[in-house]
Amino acid sequence: MSNSAAPTLNLWKKHLGSVPEFVWEQTQLETLILADNNLSELSSKIGNLKKLRTLDLGHNQLTNLPSTLGDIAALTDFLYLHDNCLTSLPDSVANLKKLRYLNLSENAFTHLPHHVAQLAGLLELRATDNALTELPDAIGNLSKLRELHLRNNHLTTLPASIGHLQELRQLDLRGNPLKTLPEALANLPKLEKLDLRWVTTLHLPASFKNLEARGCLIYL
């Protein structure tokens, strides 16, 4: 393929095992789909694809990612990393300031990587089905976040800084062993849906009736 190829390359479920070298020559690519290919590693050459807006690495066997991922400043639309074996992310991920959607679900994270909280452009963050025991206070820095999906983790509470997420519309906490929730959560002005199904350890504070009174749907 030449560099004049279409800006989308879809290699979904091609049983690749490793990424063909020709892929790293496609410097005009804006969308690259490598999902479901039994990939166990990713070349540092991913950083060559400076125009990528969407990258799908879901449903693989990745245990780490190269630091050059953070060189893709154009990565603004979607970064799918779900269903891998990740426990951490390279610090350089913090460079992706304009990324709007990040999916970390179905990995092996015990803590949300601290640099995720530096992704100021995020509108949606998915980290379901991991082993998260807590969220960093810095989660409150994601001032544009509209959806936060944390189903099936090991969270017992949330930081009070969750109250800084003034744009948050949906919060999914299903299947967590929650014991308390911060009062600040009840004051989020745009929250439309709070999902607490399969949570058997929480007594909802009376203040949360304010959420329901203004139209927020609380699922118990």
For this entry, give a set of tags.
single chain; 220 residues; mainly beta; Leucine-rich repeat, LRR (right-handed beta-alpha superhelix); ten-stranded parallel sheet; 1 helix; elongated
Q: Would you mind describing this structure in some detail?
A:
- The structure is a single chain.
- The protein has about 220 residues and is mostly beta strands.
- The protein has one domain (about 10-220): Ribonuclease Inhibitor (Leucine-rich repeat, LRR (right-handed beta-alpha superhelix)).
- Helix content is about 0%, strand content about 15%.
- It has 1 helix and 10 strands; from the N terminus they run E-E-E-E-E-E-E-E-E-H-E.
- Strands 1-2-3-4-5-6-7-8-9-10 form a 10-stranded parallel sheet, with no helix packed on it.
- Helix 1 (about 210-215) links the parallel strand 9 and strand 10 (about 215-220).
- The termini are far apart.
- The mean pLDDT is about 95.
